[in-house]
Structure formats: structure tokens, C-alpha cells
Amino acid sequence: xxxxxxxxxxxxxxxxxxxxxxxxxxxxxxxxxxxxxxxxxxxxxxxxxxxxxxxxxxxxxxxxxxxxxxxxxxxxxxxxxxxxxxxxxxxxxxxxxxxxxxxxxxxxxxx
Length: 111
Known about the structure:
By secondary structure, the chain is α+β, with helices and mostly antiparallel strands. The protein has helices at about 20-25, 65-80, 100-105, and strands at about 5-10, 15, 25-30, 35-40, 50-55, 60.
């Protein structure tokens, strides 16, 4: 295994980008290997690390198909449906409560 070049925060050379930067350009790594690391130093902890990919080897983002849109809509509906009262809460139900606020606190007492 070869060691990757390491660049400090904001000092990466042109032509390299992180996954988020690629996504902002409507690109994806497309199966290419990581070519470098970007490190942001922190006090009292290890540095934050981001992996860098070559922009010229990146591929365009795959478009969403109608089936993917339907699956995403179904998943979001499931996250908003209360398992207790089976109603659409109008918001994503917190996993810490496990139910809508009305069902989680039936007497209106917030903990």
C-alpha cells in the first residue's frame, strides 16, 4: 500500500476535489481511487480528514429515475407517519420519541 500525499486545509492543488465538492459540480468519483488526503488540524484531537479525487476522472451524477423518486417519496412518507395513531404528523418523527408529539406526550407534559 502506498502512502497518499497529505495536504493541509485550503492548500490542495487545483484539479483535486472532495466528494462534496464533486457533488456541487454535479460529478461523482466514478470508481476512481483516492489520490490524496486533506487534513484540517484540531486542538486536543486528531485532524479531520477528507479524501481527494481527480476532477478530470470524475463522472457525471446519475439522474434520478421515476422509480427512485417514488421510492424516496415512500420512504419520506414512512418517516412522517406515526406508528401509534397512523396519521401523517407533517414532520419527520424523532427517533427519540418513536411517535408523534401528541402520542408521545398525551397529557401535554413535555419532559
